[in-house]
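Journal club side-thread
Mid-discussion, someone asked how the predicted structure for our own chain would compare to the paper's figures. Pasting it here so we can look after the session.
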Amino acid sequence: MSEIPIIYLKAEQSTYLSHPDVHIKDICSVYCREKEVEEKINQIEIYRFEKNEVGRAFLSILVLVREISRIIPEGEIKNVGEKDLILYYKNPNKKENKWIQRAKILGVCVTCFLGTGISIMGYNNDVDMSKIFAQLYEIFTGTQANGPTFIELFYSIGLIVGIFVFFNHVPGKKVTNELTPIQVQMRLYEQDVNQSFLIGASRKGEELDVDSK
């Protein structure tokens, strides 16, 4: 009696694709002791986008289980990854205008710069930093300040250094190999967006499942 092949699947919640034909190997890691079985599974086609389409598709892991069961009916399938998947597809031949891309980047940079500056100025105004600087100057020098002093200069330098250290970035490279706060927040944002897409697709019946017609 031959041994029943055990098939392990591990899929990520979202996958970005640049080709319209989607096979299991494109969206899922597969492991099986029988390498011939593993290769057959990897070549199974699951979905196909229109070539000129730019969009996304929603799949249940049960679709993969169903297709694998058709090819390897005697196999035992174990899922160790996500249960619901999002496929993002963009035609690589469709190039976005470089000037539009640069304008978007410039817009984001200007927005972040102005927003950060207004936030810092608002905070300084709320806590009356000018008064604090004047008091510090008088404590250190014994005289009253008449206008800006070296205290403001040191504060400005320390603020810039603190921003670089906190965000783990200096112009051109990272300070350490740790993830930056922005990277962490972007990952959390990506998870929230994917989860919202999946919930919406499930409610609207847009998710491809084993009971889909």
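Post-session note: The chain has a mean pLDDT of 86.
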